[in-house]
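Entry for the shared binder. Reason: the reviewer on the internal report wants the predicted structure included alongside the sequence.
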Amino acid sequence: MGLWSELENDITSCRACPRLVAWREEVARVKRRAYRDEKYWGKPVPGFGDQHGRVLVIGLAPAAHGANRTGRLFTGDSSGDFLYAALHRAGFASQPTSRHRGDGLALHDVFISAVCRCAPPDNKPAPDEIAACRPFLERERALLPDLRVVVALGRVAFDAALRHFAPAEDAATRPAFGHAAAYPLADGRWLVASYHPSRQNTQTGRLTAEMFDRVWTQVKQRLASDLAP
């Protein structure tokens, strides 16, 4: 078994957090009426994308009737609709939609992960649940040797990215979360922050398509600067 396959198996078989196990399985059993004829994934969700990618996108957690249903991050919900459309416009995704695991979507130079791998009640994982998932993100990072840019979707993901990539930062020098803000990390990589493409942000206008496109423009600029002589 390869390292990626081993990691995926460890993620999907995890039962470390009783509250999350109970919730994800209840959602998968009861289902939403619109999806009552579908078989829900109902397990922790592994990362997805280009295993040689230079960009790591970190989200919060699977949506109860999105990735917890489909088994692929940001797939089958409005957040994913917004994210993959933007990735397609930026040239990182083969298509602008993500409906299910077998829909043919391929990512180019991008790998998508999450702070928490199980759907949490009210979309709010507890600190100990986030900590329990931390080793999975660390293992993904170790398997992405070409990683140059980390994109954090939302403040929780931004804080998690700082713990992973800038653990020595003190309060005085710690980067502040701000949409489309980019920060150089000590190891030469870049951290780019974004509002999360959640329905509450996109439907209220807090995050527009134009604003989101600025994030991916930042990412492409950082990648291009790596190639400059």
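Summary line for the report: The helical segments are 3-12, 18-30, 67-70, 78-89, 127-142, 155-165, 199-202, 209-227.
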